[in-house]
Write a structure and sequence with these properties.
Blueprint lengths: L2 E4 L3 H12 L4 E4 L3 H9 L9 H8 L5 E4 L10 E4 L14 H10 L8 E4 L7 H11 L10 E4 L9 H4 L5 E5 L2 H15 L3 E3 L3 H31 L4 H8 L3 E2 L2 E2 L17 H11 L5 H11 L1 H15 L8 E5 L15 H10 L3 E5 L5 H8 L7 H5 L4 E4 L11 H7 L5 E4 L6 H9 L3 E4 L3
Parallel strand pairs: 1-2, 1-4, 2-3, 4-5, 5-6, 7-8, 11-12, 11-13, 13-14, 14-15
Antiparallel strand pairs: 6-7, 9-10
Helix pairs in contact: 1-3, 4-5, 8-10, 8-11, 10-11, 12-13
Length: 441
């Protein structure tokens, strides 16, 4: 099978590279000249484990090519659309990129094509927006070509591995489209397929998933704040609570953190909220969860300042080393990172902040935070009154705290925003003279 991937961003790149490595010729279609040049060189500025090596292996081969010319899709059997689908300030889907992709694709559709939309969209978009645009080609979906929606479900930092194992949800604009899409994923990735009745259903599956994750994290974040008031460790609560059988599984409260970021969890719940609003419904859980999670960076910044005061240190003259600026652990992606809000809170109080993240692109960090990151861990922590670990990268699980004691300004606060150090490590920190505090700990 030959595959065209329209939109070679994070999802498109991970998916296209995986398919090419499995022996399917893939043509990437993108309007960004920089993306095209990178792919042709066998590189991509996407910090995803395993991706750089895969791209390097494919460089110069016929298995992965890249162009801005939509005519290239004519030679493909399957066309995957993975363009960006942001929302506006009212939660409405911004359709510009999707509309452009469909309008430019339509003239090159041919009988027998299978088109699969993977970009996250509001319910009904595939059926009422994409299908009419593609049918302008003179062909008819479900008669001349197949059209289906299959939501993207990847977690950053694990995408390449997940593509080989995660079930794919398939919702077609008709039974033939659904069967064709299911057959494609079974053959292309060898993963299980979950059929749902319609494309509308599949679109809502994606929104429901991220709505649940965001709401669950909000519960964890408020529980952590409650635990802090009672000097109770939130991890003890979660370990016990999550043992309770409920339904076919168990209670599963996720971990608290300094906030929610990235390009999905901060957007998709609002997309569901707006779809409900347009139907005359009020989704209050979405509004509440978003507010709780959006307030966590400011809460974290205040918590760090309060702990500095307990140590007899003035936040206005203190130095805080922030380790990890990405929006989640073990990725360098800083899109929508909640760490930005923590840093702004600290700097707003006059605190000196030193940033260090071994995975994030230094130029992007400097632009996003308006502050150049430090080149090394040692540079960041030298003379620090507090070390705040706000993205729990693997490197930060193995910090030599005896060494850190020689570099920091003791007594020093170790603020655990996402590593969740176990009790023995916390005890050893305190024995070394550090003051430990975490979210709900």
């Amino acid at each position: 099978m030959r595959v065209a991937v329209i939109g070679f961003g994070y999802v498109g790149t991970c998916l296209g590279v995986t398919l090419a490595r499995r022996g399917m010729p893939v043509v990437a279609v993108d309007s960004d000249r920089a993306v095209i040049d990178q792919v042709r060189r066998g590189t991509r500025d996407i910090p995803e484990p395993g991706l750089a090596e895969a791209l390097a292996d494919l460089a110069g081969t016929t298995l992965l090519t890249c162009t801005s010319d939509y005519a290239a899709v004519r030679d493909a059997d399957v066309v995957l659309i993975t363009v960006g689908t942001p929302v506006d300030e009212y939660g409405a889907l911004v359709t510009g990129q999707l509309e452009e992709a469909c309008r430019r694709l339509a003239p090159h559709l041919r009988p027998g094509h299978l088109v699969i939309l993977k970009s996250t969209v509001s319910p009904g978009t595939t059926r009422t927006f994409v299908a009419p645009l593609l049918d302008d080609s003179g062909l008819t979906h479900e008669v001349d070509y197949g059209l289906a929606f299959c939501p993207e479900r990847l977690a950053e930092g694990e995408a390449m591995a997940q593509l080989a194992e995660l079930p794919v949800v398939v919702g077609g604009c008709g039974p033939d489209s659904s069967a064709a899409a299911a057959g494609f994923w079974t053959r292309a990735l060898g993963v299980p397929v979950r059929h749902v009745p319609t494309a509308d259903t599949a679109e809502l599956v994606k929104l429901a998933t991220n709505w649940w994750i965001d709401g669950n994290v909000a519960i964890a974040n408020e529980l952590a704040q409650l635990c802090a008031g009672y000097d109770v460790d939130v991890l003890d609560i979660l370990a016990a609570a999550n043992e309770l059988p409920k339904g076919q599984r168990h209670v599963n409260i996720l971990l608290p953190s300094v906030g929610v970021g990235g390009s999905c969890l901060t957007k998709d719940p609002w997309m569901a909220w707006r779809a409900a609003k347009d139907s005359g419904l009020d989704m209050r859980t979405i509004e509440t969860a978003r507010r709780v999670n959006d307030e966590m960076p400011a809460y974290t910044g205040q918590l760090i300042r309060d702990e500095l005061v307990k140590l007899g240190k003035d936040p206005a003259s203190a130095k805080v080393a922030v380790l990890g600026v990405a929006f989640k652990n073990d990725t360098g992606d800083i899109r929508g990172t909640p760490v930005r809000g923590v840093v702004d809170s600290l700097r707003g109080a006059g605190t000196e902040v030193a940033l260090f993240d071994p995975l994030a692109d230094p130029a992007k960090v400097a632009t996003e935070f308006r502050l150049a990151p430090r080149a090394s861990l040692a540079d960041a922590v030298d003379g620090a009154d507090a070390v705040a670990i706000l993205a729990g990268h693997r490197q930060f699980h193995d910090i030599d705290f005896a060494w850190l004691r020689t570099r920091a300004r003791m007594p020093c606060l170790v603020f655990d925003g996402r590593v969740y150090y176990p009790a023995p490590v916390v005890r050893s920190l305190r024995e070394l003279g550090f003051h430990y505090r975490g979210i709900g700990r």
